């Protein structure tokens, strides 16, 4: 199995002073891991995070970026702006953006492409709603999100992309997918990537699980063969909890 990629998604939380405190607490707690550690922070915390994580094993990510280089797009941020700020990763197409901000598979593809061009590593989120799962449409939805969201992404670009499978019903609800549900869905996603690209490329692709992952369920989720890491919301806001997830898996 690969080492894991554990990313914290702070969402719209943490003032700069709080971010500083959290990062300072986190640094010594995760310094010995062989897993990759990422914190995806609000824009206003990026400079603080980049400065405080310099020389540590923590990478900094943003939570969205636009597909244009510059221009009249009030409220948006260009990938090159993030890159210049020292950011390495960017979450694209989180379900909250799909639900509240009109993100589609097409805009996900556009943002992912622009992020890659700027030298950022996208964390591309996919996942089904409860209604879709209960009506037997999970695989159809995941397959559509992957085929459309990666339509023009080249095979060699996948090495710089992390995929996050996040069932919408598990995000922020405290209802985690069972180990087997997460494993099965991710194995299915991997099979779609294998059809689109090839098996070796699909096997090498990092696919995380996200949705109420925390210090008590991380070890067993991360022990599943297809789960290559986690995208952690709520539990990433507390240093000890996030560190416990990071340290839950050793190869
Ligand atoms: P959660 O969020 O861990 O709070 O469920 C995960 C996410 O939205 O990335």
List low-confidence stretches: none
Q: How large is the share of residues in beta strands? A: 15-25%
| DSSP helical segment count | 11
- Choose one word for the global shape: globular
Name the average pLDDT.
97
According to DSSP, the number of beta strands is 8
N- to C-terminal distance: 7 Å
The major pleated sheet works out as: 8 strands, parallel, barrel
Bound molecule types? 2-phosphoglycolic acid
- Rg is 17 Å
CATH-defined superfamily: Aldolase class I
The strands making up the biggest β-sheet line up spatially as 1-2-3-4-5-6-7-8
**CATH domain fold name:** TIM Barrel
Please identify the structural class as seen in this structure. Answer: alpha/beta
SSE pattern, N- to C-terminal: EHEHEHEHHEHHEHHEHEH
């Amino acid at each position: 199995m690969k080492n894991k990629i554990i990313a914290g998604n702070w969402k719209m939380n943490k003032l700069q002073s709080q971010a500083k405190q959290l990062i300072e607490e986190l640094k010594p707690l995760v310094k010995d891991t062989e897993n990759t550690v990422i914190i995806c922070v609000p824009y206003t915390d990026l400079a603080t995070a980049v400065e405080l994580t310099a020389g540590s094993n923590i990478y900094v990510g943003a939570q969205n970026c636009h597909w244009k280089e510059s221009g009249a797009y009030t409220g948006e941020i260009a990938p090159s702006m993030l890159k210049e700020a020292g950011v390495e990763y960017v979450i694209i197409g989180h379900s909250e953006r799909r639900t509240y901000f009109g993100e589609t598979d097409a805009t996900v593809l556009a943002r992912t492409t622009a992020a890659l061009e700027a030298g950022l590593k996208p964390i591309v989120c996919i996942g089904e709603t409860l209604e879709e799962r209960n009506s037997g449409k999970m695989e159809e939805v995941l397959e559509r999100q992957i085929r459309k969201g990666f339509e023009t992404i080249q095979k060699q670009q996948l090495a710089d992309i992390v995929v996050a499978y996040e069932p919408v019903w598990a995000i922020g609800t405290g209802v985690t997918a069972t180990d087997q549900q997460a494993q099965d869905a991710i194995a299915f996603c991997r099979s779609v990537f294998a059809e689109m690209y090839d098996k070796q490329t699909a096997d090498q692709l990092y696919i995380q699980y996200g949705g109420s992952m925390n210090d008590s369920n991380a070890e067993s989720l991360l022990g599943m063969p297809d789960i290559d890491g986690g995208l952690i919301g709520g539990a990433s806001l507390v240093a000890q909890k996030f560190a416990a997830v990071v340290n839950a898996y050793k190869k």
